[in-house]
Design a protein that fits this description.
Blueprint (H helix, E strand, L loop, with lengths): L24 H16 E3 L6 E3 L14 H7 L17 H23 L9 H9 L8 H16 L10 H11 L2 H14 L4 E9 L17 E9 L10 E7 L6 H4 L3 H12 L2 H54 L1
Antiparallel strand pairs: 1-2, 3-4, 3-5
Helix pairs in contact: 3-5, 4-5, 7-9
Length: 330
């Protein structure tokens, strides 16, 4: 039998160790604010260079039912009493997954990029650079896992599940045949991802992966939804896809609640936890980004044509002048 990993209790994290003096909530809040500012903006010596540090983002829903009351008294205190996602995802899983694993990725990433050329870049840029065409640089796994987990928590909501609506549902029905067929395909991808990894619904603008190539027959049908799975920390950003929905199938995401029953975890996620509003919003953003990229490519193409036009006209005039000289000499 597999040993159950120890959880990190964020409730006990604020209690003083034996023999140490108690710190009042007000002083604790002031200290936390000061430390947060120091982590976020560190000046190196007398240089004007500012070092940006990534922070652990909380999910976009209350982690427990007492949180809203506690934050009014002291925002630095977060007590896990009952997870907003229960009974579908337990408080213990959130403490262990968000409070330990996600936190660890953030802290490790900050240590890895501190003082390097990656310091100050966006998380997406760090992921792309450190992917290094599959030959990962040291910061890749932590950077990608920070992004993946931020995205994963924002994919869920209390009382989630159900079915999407609007443009999202129309695209799902167009590209998968029906919503039910999409659910089957997504579950299959998540359940058959060998070992640790992720399953995704992504928006794919069907572009050829060649620097000087342009899709010869672009159409709206090229912009489609796809279900993909990825190992470890890999995500669809690396394939130039726009992620819309994800499920974490690393064992730490579900073991405390479901043990080895990954299929049950996937079903509960689909039926009770997905925020289709968040997925629909991401689709609109993805479509807008793709449209802007197409406009930018069109502007670039016109600019290149304009640069070539004067040269072409000059060549034509030169050739015409030569023909004129030859006729006069005859």
């Amino acid at each position: 039998m597999l040993a159950t990993p120890a959880t990190v209790s964020l409730t006990r994290a604020r209690l003083p160790a034996p023999g140490r003096r108690w710190i009042s909530p007000r002083r604790l809040l002031c200290r936390d604010k000061r430390e947060k500012m120091e982590r976020t903006c560190l000046r190196k010596g007398n240089s004007s260079l500012i070092t940006a540090k990534f922070e652990l983002k909380p999910p976009p829903y209350h982690l427990d039912w007492k949180q809203s009351i506690q934050e009014e008294l002291c925002p630095a205190i977060r007590i896990f009493s009952e997870s907003a996602l229960e009974p579908h995802m337990s408080r213990e899983t959130l403490e262990y997954h968000w409070g330990k694993h996600h936190r660890g990725y953030v802290e490790n990433l900050n240590r890895q990029i501190g003082g390097t050329e990656l310091d100050g870049l966006t998380l997406e840029d760090i992921i792309t650079i450190t992917y290094n065409k599959g030959d990962f640089l040291p910061a890749f796994n932590n950077a990608a896992q920070v992004w993946n987990h931020d995205f994963f928590w924002e994919t869920m909501k209390p009382d989630g599940g159900g079915e999407p609506s609007g443009d999202l549902l129309e695209l799902i029905e167009r590209d998968f045949g029906s919503f039910e067929r999409f659910v089957e395909e997504f579950k299959l991808a998540a359940s058959t991802q060998f070992g640790s990894g992720w399953a995704w619904l992504a928006y794919k603008a069907n572009r050829l992966d060649v620097g000087n190539a342009v899709n010869p027959c672009p159409s709206e049908q090229d912009k489609k939804l796809v279900v993909v799975k990825s190992p470890n920390a890999i995500n669809p950003l690396l394939w130039d896809y726009c992620p819309l929905l994800s499920i974490d199938v690393w064992e730490h995401a579900y073991y405390l609640d479901f043990q080895i029953r990954r299929a049950d975890y996937i079903s509960i996620f689909m039926e009770k936890l997905i925020s289709w509003e968040a997925v629909g919003s991401r689709l609109e953003m993805a479509k807008a980004q793709v449209a802007e990229r197409e406009r930018e490519e069109e502007r670039r193409k016109r600019a290149e044509e304009e640069e070539q036009t004067p040269h072409g006209e000059a060549t034509k005039m030169f050739l015409e002048s030569i023909d004129g000289d030859d006729s006069e000499s005859e």
